[in-house]
Design goal:
alpha/beta; Aminopeptidase; six-stranded mixed β-sheet; 9 helices; 24% strand; hydrolase; Bact_exopeptidase_dim_dom; [LysW]-lysine/[LysW]-ornithine hydrolase; cobalt ion binding
Length: 347
């Protein structure tokens, strides 16, 4: 496959629109099988499909380009408006997916051994990433393709704790009750909650609250869910200690625990991507994201990982999600340049 813009842009548009027409919210990634079977043959890339409905293309390698094929719910009819492609997943993450797929094809045609993955369930519980970690396979370099505004290089993501808390109390008739579980839980919620202030200050946000059985009886049980985000500068244990201290009479269950990740800005991978952008006359920027991604999970199977991808991250999950063919073309060039540089160092 050629790297020329006049050849790549029409090809990218064709593949991206085709993939966007396949609605793949988390749990329905199997619907993309025919797409990957087709591109596997067209691009001469070996295809492997896993039990999580993740798709791997290319040669077995210690260099991995990784995206995800699932999207958040809500179909958006795909369309092209003068090189701007609209559709659910155009930014997160099918636009970056196509960029990585094209880069993998170009690099393999040039004789480099590169693996590409379109993982499942990133918008839910990251089954695809967890499945990959469980194989024991390690990589020298991993580039995660979440949108980073095309010129941004993400070197840090915050961690997340999802915590369920179940409290109970003796039910009473509301006309004569001398205590109320809702009031008690509400007081505790106010004591521990913390709205986002800055990157390194943890946020503790209640997102679900259920209590009450009858209109004239105080509740016998109540459940609150907290979404906790924190950077590498915070201690997970300290955050949980605060929760346990306030809710000491309640049952606390950690339902998800993803640690934060931070990589060196001087790593070979970061520097190679920076140079790939600079070669195109683009000023790179180092950034960090408030959320989490598969980069948090996959960091344990490599010593050099980073996130870089096309697309405006502010458009993720919106009803006007769109990406330009130019952004994708820039990213393809960046991936190819960075990996060629890394492979020359390996040699």
């Amino acid at each position: 496959m050629r790297l020329e813009k006049d050849y790549l842009k029409p090809r990218v548009k064709e593949l991206l629109l085709e993939l966007l027409k396949i609605y793949t919210p988390s749990g329905e990634e199997y619907k993309a099988l025919s797409f990957f079977e087709k591109v596997s043959k067209e691009l001469n890339l070996e295809l492997r499909v896993t039990s999580s409905n993740s798709y791997y293309l290319g040669k077995d390698s210690d260099i991995l380009l990784v995206s995800h094929v699932d999207t958040v719910p809500g179909y958006i009819e795909p369309r092209d408006e003068n090189g701007i492609i609209y559709g659910r997943g155009a930014v997160d993450d099918k636009g970056p997916l196509i960029a990585m797929l094209m880069a993998t094809s170009i690099l393999n045609d040039k004789g480099y051994s590169i693996s590409f993955a379109a993982l499942s369930d990133e918008e839910n519980k990251s089954k695809g990433a967890r499945e990959l970690v469980s194989t024991g396979k390690r990589y020298k370099y991993i580039i995660v393709g979440e949108p980073s505004n095309t010129s941004g290089i993400v070197v840090e993501y915050r961690g997340v704790l999802h915590v369920d808390i179940k409290c109970s109390d003796k039910p009473q008739h509301s006309s004569s009750a001398n205590s109320n579980l809702i009031v008690n839980i509400a007081d505790k919620i106010l004591r521990v909650s913390k709205f986002p202030e800055s990157y390194d200050i943890p946020s503790i946000i209640p997102t679900i609250f259920h209590a009450g059985e009858y209109i004239n009886k105080s509740p016998s049980s109540g459940v609150v869910h907290f979404d906790i985000r924190y950077s590498v500068k915070s201690s997970k244990e300290d955050l949980l200690l605060k929760i346990r201290d306030v809710f000491k009479d309640c049952e606390i269950v950690i339902v998800e625990d993803i640690p934060p990740v931070k990589v060196s800005t001087n790593s070979n991978l970061v520097k190679s991507i920076m140079r790939g952008l600079i070669k195109q006359g683009i000023k790179p920027s180092l950034t960090r994201k408030y959320g989490t991604s598969d980069m948090n999970i996959l960091s344990v199977i490599t010593s050099d990982i980073v996130n870089y991808g096309p697309g405006d991250s502010k458009l993720e999950h919106t009803d006007y999600e769109h990406i330009s063919l130019e952004e994708i073309f820039i990213s393809i060039n960046t991936y190819v340049s960075a990996i060629e540089e890394l492979c020359s160092k390996k040699a």
